[in-house]
């Protein structure tokens, strides 16, 4: 029997995603801000780990928004938004809500994007790794 497709991200899903991401952040020793958004790019759940940068609260939430709004990881979007690339200047769209730093990844049910995770507080590689851990738990 095939697994049932999810149509969105429940609070239970978001808590599971955040717990896995938080565990990864603890393993690498980097406090993070972790946000999970639903299919409409609306915030479902958020945590700020003790010691995580206050300035990264907004960034993590915008990474979640961006990865759902465009159904692409922010790491990949960043590659396409450099000067001379097809999405150059995209960060200025959507009233400044677009983040092109690594750490935002869509959450999928099958091939359908149903939400996203946004992580901020470390290097781009650290943010992306923590987000990937959250995605794996979804």
From TrEMBL:
PANTHER family: PROTEIN GLCG, SLR1406 PROTEIN. Pfam families: HbpS-like (PF03928). This is Heme-binding protein. Transmembrane segments: none annotated. It comes from the Bacteria. It comes from Alloacidobacterium dinghuense. InterPro entries: GlcG_carb_metab_protein, PduO/GlcC-like, PduO/GlcC-like_sf.
